[in-house]
Amino acid sequence: MLLSTLLFAGMNACVKHLQHLPALEIIFFRSVFSIVASYVALRRLGVAPFGNNYRLLISRGSTGALALVCYFLALQNLPLATAVTAQYLAPIFTAVMGIWLVREPVRHLQWVFFALSFGGVVLVQQGGPVGPAAGAQGAAGLAFLGIGVFGALLSGLSYNAIRRLRGREHPLVIVFYFPLISLPLAALGCLFSWQLPQGTDWLWLLACGAFTQGAQVAMTRAYQLERLSRVAPLNYLGMFYALGLGYVFFAESFGPVAYAGMTLVLLGVGLNAWYTSRADARAAALAPAEEVVA
User: Fold this and answer.
1) Residue 294 class from Cβ within 10 Å (0-12 exposed, 13-18 middle, 19+ buried)?
2) DSSP string, 151-195
3) Dihedral sign, CA of 72, 236, 92, 169?
4) What is the maximum alpha-carbon separation in the chain?
5) What is the mean pLDDT of residues 130-139?
6) Which of 136, 178, 265, 268 is surrounded by the fewest CB atoms within 10 Å?
7) What is residue 81's three-state secondary structure?
8) Which segments cross the bilayer (predicted)?
9) What is the DSSP string of 94-139?
């Protein structure tokens, strides 16, 4: 998951740099790269590309594709850190919906850690950026922020579908369904809005596809191997990448309130990881004794 957040940060920077191109067009080129890379890898591994659990795979692909559209719109019209902030509601949605969708309970103390991280996200949004890099303002800014939050909700549904596919499908099959659904969706949108990429745009589009493919594979594997409530909050660490990249490449400046928010996010993530590791280790230690009693 740590590798995934780093690679997604690279993708974010590419999308932000390509803000002069329509969001669906970037998704189209990204999907072309991903579908080719996934298919070639699956064929080399001798794995059937279309899998067997069609309903769950299509659910993961469709919710992921719609979430991606929302996220790219937010990235292009809001400051980098603000758009990423909205997306960081996804781990909370993931863990909460996981209570019903995959029957993974969230321990009481974890809600406190989630609240810490969420409060930090709110502070980061209120603390910056300022000036010419502030992005859409007023009603337009709120609308794009709402789109970003809705995208985070859809991401939560998508991540739960990944978790339900644990042990049923190869991770690359799950990744393959993402561009399989998003490619025709993006192609349809490009019919109404097309702008031919120029010069270095092609290199940025290629980098966007490469970053995304690597991040998707790493993220999918993480969600299949570990509890949702344990790994999902690690997405918050990507905020630090967003803050750094926004400052270096897009002149997005922040105040002390934003840095206080960063501290809260890191505290919530760290405490959640420590608490779940300790609780899981305790449960594993008690399991043999319970079996003997039974």
Assistant:
1) exposed
2) HHHHHHHHHHHHHHTTTTS-HHHHHHHHHHHHHHHHHHHHTTS--
3) positive
4) 70
5) 57
6) 136
7) helix
8) 23-42, 54-74, 80-102, 109-127, 139-162, 174-196, 202-219, 231-250, 256-275
9) HHHHHHHHS--PPPHHHHHHHHHHHHHHHHHHHT--BGGG--S-HH
Confidence of residue 145 (pLDDT cuts 50, 70, 90): confident
Tokens of 26: 């970037």
Beta bridge partners of 253: 130
CA-to-CA separations, 54 to 43, 155, 221, 252, in angstroms, rounded: 19, 19, 19, 43
What are phi and psi for residue 192, nearest 5 degrees?
-100, -15
CA pair distance 167, 69, nearest whole angstrom: 29
Span of 19-23, 43-47, 106-110, 287-291 with lowest mean pLDDT: 287-291
Residues 175-195: what's their mean pLDDT?
91
Residue 195 CA to residue 203 CA, distance in Å, equals 16
CB 123 within 8 A of CB 260: yes
Contact between 280 and 227 under an 8 Å Cβ cutoff? The reply is yes
* pLDDT tens per residue across span 38-90: 899 999 999 999 999 999 999 999 999 999 999 999 988 888 888 887 887 88
CA dist., res. 197 & res. 154, Å (int): 29
Mean pLDDT value across residues 238-267:
81
DSSP letter assigned to residue 253: B
